[in-house]
Amino acid sequence: MDAAEDLLKDPAIRAYLHRLIGDEGLDLLIRFPDDGVHSDEDLAAKTGINLNTVRHTLYTLYEKRLAEYHRIKNNETGWLTYLWQLRIDKIYDTIREDLQLVLDKLEHRVQFEEENDFFICKECGIIYPFARALDNEFKCPECGNQIGHFDNEALTIALKQRVRNIQESLGHAQSS
Fold it and tell me: What range defines the domain where residue 107 resides?
């Protein structure tokens, strides 16, 4: 059994990869030959997976540094062949980087929620920050109804909890 199959036994890693490359991509990972480097055409032939799917999966993995390639040029035809190998061993670094991006966005959202007052149209359900509500004279620009204050405390608490959970997952819990 190869490293990719071992990693795919972990439900969290499998779910991450599934979101990244889908069912056919996971199938390619499972069927990817253990030895050496392989062209996309060879992989399609050996695994029975559509060539376009193989290429899409490999480029998606490459963007996340989970696959590498090197090119060789045929001197007679001038054509380039890309030889691929998996780097699934970098999966934990990739997941950590993605979690850090999510954490950064959530922290900015928490700050935005804490620094602003919000107003809601009870008819449309649209929430407006104070500045936009003021610009519209506290009337909904969609339906014209009066808008009222929106208490975002529950949302802020939920966002902060999510931030704490991700910080714990990343191993650097901070006080919020």
Answer: 93-170
